[in-house]
Design goal:
By secondary structure, this protein is mainly α. It has 2 domains: 96 residues, no CATH class; 44 residues, no CATH class. Helices cover 50% and strands 2% of the residues. It contains 8 helices and 2 strands, in the order H-E-E-H-H-H-H-H-H-H. The protein has a two-stranded antiparallel sheet. The longest helix is centred in the last third of the chain and has 14 residues. The N and C termini lie far apart (54 Å). 20% of the residues are buried.
């Protein structure tokens, strides 16, 4: 009889088998991407961008759009090309490999404090035009009309994700 190691004796089923998320190829028709507040390398939104890009590349993006205005903010800050970024996603790069790609290929080289400041700004980014305010308020009224704490785009995204996938406001 083969000797069981602690690792094999208590092995957990994969995230997929257990009904969890598959970050290598997420299905955004079944669950939302990671929160825009989740950071990778100090960058907010990057893990969400990776989830969306992988899902779109796999044909499972649902209503999510790659290179949306939030993605464009990231690409502008880093100076990366969204087409080249997607090519790396399609090559099967992991989160760590994608972060290394961002760090190596960014035209706008940023230090840790600049990344932290940009991420803090993104977390506080609010509606700035009347058309955007109308859009923001329309979804807000639909999803949670009584919630006065939905003030930033990240608040709005998290609420929309939650309600869209079956949560109650």
């Amino acid at each position: 009889m083969a000797k069981k190691t602690l690792r094999t004796a208590y092995a957990q089923p994969s995230g997929i088998a257990a009904g969890g998320l598959n970050y290598a190829a997420p299905d955004l028709t079944r669950h939302p991407p990671r929160s825009p507040r989740t950071r990778l390398g100090g960058y907010v939104h990057l893990p969400r961008l990776l989830d969306k890009a992988r899902a779109v590349a796999a044909g499972r993006g649902g209503d999510f759009h790659y290179n949306c205005p939030f993605d464009v903010k990231f690409f502008t800050f880093t100076g990366l090309n969204h087409v080249a970024f997607m090519a790396q996603i399609k090559a099967g790069k992991s989160d760590s490999e994608m972060l290394a790609y961002v760090q190596a290929k960014s035209k706008n080289k940023r230090n840790d404090s600049e990344i932290a400041a940009w991420s803090a700004w993104m977390e506080q980014w609010t509606v700035s035009t009347p058309d955007a305010r109308e859009f923001f308020n329309g979804i807000h009224r639909k999803n949670a009309p009584g919630r006065a704490d939905i003030a930033t785009w990240f608040d709005w995204i998290e609420l929309d994700d939650y309600v869209t996938y079956g949560g109650r406001p």
